[in-house]
Amino acid sequence: MIFDRVKELVAEIENSTVENKDQLEAFRLKYISKKGVVTELFDNLKNIAQEDRRAVGQELNTLKNLAQNRFQEFSAGIEAAGGQNQALQIDLTLPVPPNLQGSLHPLTIVRRRIIEIFERMGFNISYGPEIEKDWYNFSALNFADNHPAREMQDTFFISKSEGDVKDDVLLRTHTSNVQVRLMERQKPPIRSIMPGRVFRNEAISARAHCVFHQVEGLYVDKNVSFKDLKDTLYHFAKEMFGKDSKIRLRPSYFPFTEPSAEIDVSCFICKGKGCNVCKYTGWVEIAGSGMVDPNVLQNCGIDHEAYTGFAFGMGIERITMLRYGINDLRLFTENDVRFLRQFEGA
Ligand code: DAH
């Protein structure tokens, strides 16, 4: 009979639940305290026949341990929930937490914005390969055979040809390769922008990376002038950085353009007064540009007597850093969600 009683209590304890401190205390009084049922059974032990006493004692010990373990579990649960059982803490009337939404990468946001601005001016989009022949990346663009950019420290070569350097295979170092491919397959008028990924053999730091992105622009037609280049980039700067932006052209050199110019935009952070983004000059560089060198037109089968063109190239990382005040290139590729979440809804 006593065994039945023990069994009953085991089931009772196993099935019991405790949801608050009061219920915990009730549990303690009933199963643990000196006045509880388990102690009472122990007190009764002396009335049990001598030969059964040992077996009953063992059963009672098991029961006592079970009660104590359950009690500890219950009190830990209630403590963790700050006095309430966790089950009770769920407030079903609360609104559900919002699903975390993904966000566009800042480079995607800026690339799309650049494309949008140029598309409105009548530019279409072209793409070209990242693994490229020397011809498209260098030779057709008027780089001399011994130009230092071909050297190992700048270019990732995939295979060096036995014969002509023009057949070397490499990772493109700029998006200007797409200009050449475009001019080879399409006669003017050509008005296109060419976004893409480029590669250079650089040590990774806050200011340099071996993989980055550019947008190339090319406009070839009859009577395209340097003024068209200036107007186009001026319009771009106003759309991208604000309508009060000014641009400035500085003479420069690129093998594929003549004349060549570096494009600066007035610092949109300090409005030209001087700050650490513009290094207290009031201007920040955003692109290289120039009039397409007649040699390049000719290399691509376009009559350089009949046609002229302008070209430009800008770094998407650079523009993104300027626009969002980002000071380390490595953030773009680390995929730290604390960084990426800042662009939600941007
Ligand atoms: N390809 C140049 C670079 O990677 C950028 C550039 C400069 C592109 C002038 C052009 C240009 O089309 O006209 O640094």
Automatic annotation (TrEMBL):
Residue span(s) of domain Aminoacyl-transfer RNA synthetases class-II family profile: 110-342
The Enzyme Commission number assigned here is 6.1.1.20
The cross-references to Pfam families, in alphabetical order and at most eight, read: Phe_tRNA-synt_N, tRNA-synt_2d
Q: Which cofactor names does the annotation list?
A: Mg(2+)
Q: Which reaction does it catalyse?
A: tRNA(Phe) + L-phenylalanine + ATP = L-phenylalanyl-tRNA(Phe) + AMP + diphosphate + H(+)
**What is the superkingdom listed in this entry's lineage?**
Bacteria
Keywords tagged on the record: Aminoacyl-tRNA synthetase, ATP-binding, Cytoplasm, Ligase, Magnesium, Metal-binding, Nucleotide-binding, Protein biosynthesis
- Sequence positions that bind Mg(2+): E258
Which compartments is it annotated to reside in?
Cytoplasm
Which CDD domains does the record match to this protein?
Answer: PheRS_alpha_core (cd00496)
Query: Does the keyword Cytoplasm belong to this entry?
Result: yes
**GO molecular function terms noted in the UniProt entry:** phenylalanine-tRNA ligase activity
Q: Which Gene3D superfamilies does this UniProt record tie to the protein?
A: Bira Bifunctional Protein, Domain 2
Q: Does the keyword Ligase apply?
A: yes
| Oligomeric and partner information | Tetramer of two alpha and two beta subunits.
Describe the family membership recorded for this protein in Swiss-Prot or TrEMBL.
Answer: Belongs to the class-II aminoacyl-tRNA synthetase family. Phe-tRNA synthetase alpha subunit type 1 subfamily.
Protein name, UniProt field: Phenylalanine--tRNA ligase alpha subunit
Please spell out the taxonomic lineage of the organism that makes this protein.
Answer: Bacteria, Pseudomonadati, Bacteroidota, Cytophagia, Cytophagales
Name the encoding gene, please: pheS
